[in-house]
Amino acid sequence: MDLLEKCRAYMRADEARDVGLYPYYPTFQGPVEGGQAILDGAEVCMLGSNNYRALSVNPQVIGAAQDAIALYGTSATGSRLLNGNLDLHEELEADLAGFFGYEAALVFATGYMTNLGVVSALAGRGDQVYLDEKAHASLIDGARLAKASGAMMRWFGHNDPDDLARQLAAAPTQSILVATDGVFSMEGDLAPVAELVAVCEEYGATLLVDDAHGVGVFGHGRGVIEQAGMQGRVPLMTLTFSKSLASQGGAVLADAKTVDFLRHTCRPQIFSAGLSPADTAAAHAALREIRRRAGRIPDALAAAEHLRRALDALGYNVAGSASPVIPVRFPDQLAMLSAQRILVDHGVYTNAVLPPACEGYQLRIACTDAHTPGVLEAAIGVFAALREDLLPRYRQVA
Ligand code: PMP
User: Fold this and answer.
1) Any ligand 1 atom below 6 A from CB of 185
2) Dist. CA 249 → ligand 1 center (Å)
């Protein structure tokens, strides 16, 4: 049996394709604008995007990316460590650090690489990494790399600071990284940041909050740490530019010495080209826009609240979410995939999510500032019309 035998034997995607229920790699034409998108030539209500502040189509953000290409070209052309470090990167880092209240920031090419690099650079032999059991794959993969270089990898119960405290009380070292998402990307619930800070401070552990989905949405744009009143108490924060910041890339925020260490030791940073000029400038313009709007509650939150209530009233189970992300659970893969297909056929796009990305089978809905009442009402109308089709699939959930 050769190496590629497993690929030839892989049937999972084909099985879904064969029954017309394959939901992945859908092809969208054109930008996702106004809460809508064009899918296979037809307009759909886009309820599956992380473009929470709808800034990917904002004229200032687009203009900044265009100007950066005109001035710097299309590529950073190398690792930042050597030739790919641009003043654009450093200006963005200075503004990120200032806005989020940290001494320094380091920009990476993706959010995934940020978490992978930070966790694996900071933890190794003699260290312990504790992860929330629903932490994002990028934190998990960073911890796996840390484990490969000798760190111990442990889990604590989802959003369960008491479980974490019990485990830390018995830990043989204080050289501990505790990592959690700020907003859980599939469940839409928020980490109990204040309680986690208290436990970490008590046991001398270092807390990392990946606020990929909270930045731009909560706490005047600064995310769940600010919302919890914990600014200055979380030593490590990571974020991505691929959601509210309407670009590509990610960043870690920390004290200056830690960031300097990471600049020289993070392998995904050193061995990969710097973030492109357009992506860097777009993220920076989006950050300025979020800072400018800091006094206003994002429309995405109001849209999500409205949609959550409407779905709840229709009998869908939307419990647990407190963010623009709304999960709707189904008893099995077939029920979830059929529901996703029925919704798409009626002009509503939601994300189909399977284990291990989440527990069970769910449609993941995400609201953005572009979901105006008109757009939402149309989508709610579809959920209402499909009630009899979708709810029987749904009601079987234990
Ligand atoms: N962290 C979390 C919580 C995420 O949800 C994601 C992406 N879905 C990432 C990190 C990775 O971000 P990126 O898309 O920039 O690689």
Assistant:
1) yes
2) 9
Dihedral sign for Cα 345, 351, 357, 362, please: negative
> Which helix (H) or strand (E) is 33 found in, with range?
strand 28-33
Q: Is the pLDDT of residue 31 over 70?
A: no
Q: State if residue 117 touches ligand 1 by the CB under 6 angstroms criterion.
A: no
Q: Is the pLDDT of residue 390 over 90?
A: no
pLDDT tens track for 331-353: 888 888 999 999 999 999 999 99
Q: What is the pLDDT confidence band of residue 398, given thresholds at 50, 70 and 90?
A: very low
Confidence check: pLDDT of 295 > 90: no
Contact 277, 72 (CB under 8 A): yes
Pick 59-292's CATH classification: 3.40.640.10, 3.20.20.120, 3.40.50.40, 3.30.300.30: 3.40.640.10
Does any ligand 1 atom lie closer than 6 A to the CB of residue 364?
no
User: Domain 5-52+298-397: what homologous superfamily?
Assistant: Aspartate Aminotransferase, domain 1 (3.90.1150.10)
Q: What is the Cα–Cα distance from 238 to 19, expressed in whole angstroms?
A: 40
More confident residue, 389 or 379: 379
Rounded (5°) CA angle 157-336-315 = 85
